[in-house]
Amino acid sequence: MSSTFGKLLRVTTFGESHCSGVGAVLDGCPPRLSLDEADIQMQLDRRRPGQSRLSTDRQEADRVTILSGVENGMTLGTPISLLVANKDHIPGDYESMRSIPRPSHADFTYQIKYGIRAASGGGRSSARETIGRVAAGAIAEKYLNECHGVEIVAWVSAVGLIEAGPVNIEAIDRAAVDQNIVRCPDPTAAEQMATRIARLKDEGDSIGGIVSCVARNVPVGLGEPVFDKLEAKLAQAMLSIPATKGFEIGSGFSGAGMQGSVHNDPFVQKGARLGTATNNSGGALGGISNGEPIYFRVAFKPPATIKQPQETADFDGRPAVLEAKGRHDPCVVPRAVPIVEAMTALTLGDLLLRQRTRQD
């Protein structure tokens, strides 16, 4: 099982949903970066369960401990080990799911692939695995921001068929995103989204949504042709997040219906650099960052574990009715925002270090 992402900036996550703890080892972080647990905790607090009435009722503080790689508040250039304890887990809630794979869940594929699985909580397929990503991503983001001025902001742009209004990707910040529990910067849409999610939670159902993200001030030149293009690595990073089903950058699928005369981004002088008048390319040309904001969207499916009775089959093929217990998000996108930001930071951080090998 591959649990490592990145080439020069490498993160390896570990742990299952209901084991003693989860975390990550981040290798390749440059030395002499100021770092303490508070720098990481901010993003973990945005990801943690039980933070609002719209999320799972599981209560976890998700306090991070730095085990290695930092001394006197400075990174050493050695692997940084990060640990978060699991405390509020109830394995008994999953007893009925030991013999019945949840529809649209990884229970079936894990069992067939390995002949065994962590039936309690979903194991490695649980979104709890993303704690390690968020912790490591917070470090990558701090490096990108302090050393290169990179800004990464994600937000909820759709829940089901409810879409937020247009967002100024040049100005959107996390304060605007975090002004409501849905993490949508459009207050009117956010209220509608919250109502929809709350109603589905009461009904024991779930719903999907879309997270949009922008990375600003990214240096020109990040991305490795041909197979490690910037958008290809971002797509890999985003589609590795649990429950993701789609990725598009810039104009995305809508660009397929446009003419070249409309879609092309003309070059213009922007201060001391050459830029583009429009940004249908989403900040990348030929798989390499061009200095414009990198803008993309990630689609998340409805969470598979719902409390409504579902007619399905057990592992032996016998008809069964599954009415799942446990505590699960009715919609993952509000808590997915920091996960998307983390994977963006890890991707850009790795590509930046790879580009530096050509310049140093």
What does this 3D model show about the protein?
This protein has 360 residues and is of the alpha+beta class. The protein has a single domain (4-359), classed as Chorismate synthase, AroC fold. The chain is 28% helix and 22% strand. It contains 8 helices and 18 strands. The chain has helices at residues 37-47, 107-114, 130-148, 174-177, 187-203, 230-239, 260-263, 333-359; strands at 4-5, 10-14, 21-27, 64-68, 70-71, 74-75, 80-85, 151-159, 162-163, 209-216, 244-249, 267-270, 273-276, 284-285, 288-289, 294-300, 310-313, 319-322. The strands form 6 sheets. A 5-stranded antiparallel beta sheet has the order 1-2-3-7-4, covered by helices on one side. A 5-stranded antiparallel beta sheet has the order 9-8-10-16-11. Helix 1 crosses helix 3, helix 1 (37-47) crosses helix 8 and helix 3 (130-148) packs across helix 8. The mean pLDDT is 94.
Summarize the main sheet: 5 strands, antiparallel
How many runs of DSSP E, i.e. beta strands? 18
Within CATH, the superfamily carries the name Chorismate synthase AroC
Q: From N to C, what is the helix and strand string?
A: EEEHEEEEHHEEHHEHEHEEEEEEEH
Shape: globular
Q: Nearest-angstrom radius of gyration?
A: 21 Å
Q: How are the elements arranged and paired?
A:
Blueprint: E1 4-5, E2 10-14, E3 21-27, H1 37-47, E4 64-68, E5 70-71, E6 74-75, E7 80-85, H2 107-114, H3 130-148, E8 151-159, E9 162-163, H4 174-177, H5 187-203, E10 209-216, H6 230-239, E11 244-249, H7 260-263, E12 267-270, E13 273-276, E14 284-285, E15 288-289, E16 294-300, E17 310-313, E18 319-322, H8 333-359
Antiparallel strand pairs: 1-2, 2-3, 3-7, 4-7, 5-6, 8-9, 8-10, 10-16, 11-16, 12-13, 14-15, 17-18
